[in-house]
UniProtKB/TrEMBL annotation:
InterPro entries: Formyl_transf_N, Formyl_transf_N_sf. Pfam families: Formyl_trans_N. This is Formyl transferase N-terminal domain-containing protein. Residues 88-161 form the Formyl transferase N-terminal domain. The lineage of its organism: Bacteria, Pseudomonadati, Pseudomonadota, Alphaproteobacteria, Hyphomicrobiales. It comes from the Bacteria. It comes from Segnochrobactrum spirostomi.
C-alpha cells in the first residue's frame, strides 16, 4: 500500500513498512534541529519527499491523486484534516479516551498507570477523539520510564500495523466510538525545568516521568538538557541549588534532603 507518514518513526516502523512491501510516498514533520537517521533512511529507500510543515487538505487531496491510500500520524503535534477520502489514523500513547492531549506519558507514570498502552484511532475534527481501531494495554513496573513507554508504543504499534494495514477496510468498518468523557486529560505540555527545591525522590523521578534530554537544567551560566539524575539522601545546610562539583558532563547539586548527580548535554 502507498502510505504517507506524519511524525517520526523508529527502526521497528521502518522494518515493518519494508518487510510488508509498503511504499512511503511522503513524510511530514515538525521542524526540528534533530532529524532521525531512521527517517532519513526510510525517505531515501522509498524516494519519499520530506516536508517540514503542517500538512493541509490540499496536500492530502494531492496524495490521493498520487495513489496514497493511508496516512499514519505518530508523534505529530498538528491537527490533520479528516474530511478527505484518504484513510487517516493516529497512534496515541494512552488508552483513549483517558489521556487525551499532547503528552500523557508523564502523567501515566506519575498517577495513571492503568492507562499505559496505546490507541490507534481514526483522524477526527478534534484531537484524539476519533473512532478506535485498535487498543493495546501495557503492564508497567517501577522500571518503566517515559522512554520505555514511548519505545514500547513504537514497537507494539508497528507490529499491530502489520495486520491492520492490509486489512484496513475491515478495521475501518469495525471501529468503535470513544464512549464517555475522559477521566483525565493531558491538555498542555510545558518543558519541565529541574527544580532543586524538591525532595531527592521527586528530583530523580523527573527523568523517569519526562524522559532523557527532556528536562532543562539552568544553573548559573549553564543551560543544558538532563540525560540522567542520580543522588543520595544526606542532611546538610546547603541552600538547594548550590553547585558542589561540576565538569563538562556532570554536575552535583544540593537539593532539599540530599544531593543529585546530573549528567547533562549542552544545548
Amino acid at each position: 500500500m502507498k502510505i504517507s507518514i506524519c511524525g517520526a518513526i523508529d527502526s521497528t516502523w521502518k522494518d515493518m513498512l519494508c518487510d510488508e512491501g509498503h511504499t512511503v510516498h511522503s513524510i511530514w514533520m515538525q521542524r526540528s534541529p534533530y532529524l532521525s537517521s531512521e527517517v532519513l533512511s526510510l525517505a531515501e529507500h522509498h524516494g519519499a519527499a520530506l516536508y517540514f510543515r503542517r500538512v493541509n487538505r490540499t496536500d492530502m487531496l494531492e496524495m490521493l491523486n498520487d495513489g496514497v491510500r493511508l496516512l499514519i500520524s505518530i508523534g505529530y503535534p498538528f491537527l490533520i484534516p479528516s474530511d478527505t477520502p484518504l484513510w487517516g489514523v493516529n497512534i496515541h500513547p494512552s488508552l483513549l479516551p483517558d489521556g487525551r492531549g499532547p503528552y500523557p506519558i508523564p502523567l501515566i507514570i506519575q498517577s495513571h498507570g492503568e492507562c499505559a498502552g496505546f490507541t490507534i484511532h481514526k483522524l477526527s475534527p478534534l484531537f484524539d477523539q476519533g473512532d478506535v481501531i485498535y487498543r493495546e494495554r501495557f503492564a508497567i513496573s517501577e522500571h518503566d520510564t517515559c522512554d520505555t513507554l514511548l519505545f514500547r508504543m513504537y514497537m507494539h504499534s508497528s507490529n499491530a500495523m502489520r495486520n491492520i494495514i492490509p486489512n484496513i477496510e475491515c478495521y475501518w468498518a469495525a471501529a468503535t466510538a470513544q464512549v464517555g468523557r475522559p477521566a483525565w486529560e493531558a491538555r498542555r505540555f510545558d518543558q519541565p525545568f529541574f527544580n532543586p527545591n524538591l525532595l531527592l525522590e521527586d528530583c530523580i523521578g523527573m527523568c523517569r516521568r519526562y524522559g532523557e534530554d527532556s528536562t532543562i537544567l539552568k544553573v548559573s551560566d549553564l543551560t543544558a538538557t538532563v540525560s540522567s539524575i542520580q543522588g543520595w539522601k544526606e542532611a546538610h545546610s546547603r541552600k538547594p541549588g548550590t553547585v558542589i562539583s561540576k565538569d563538562e558532563y556532570r554536575i552535583v547539586i544540593a537539593v532539599m534532603d540530599g544531593f543529585v548527580i546530573i549528567r547533562y548535554k549542552l544545548i
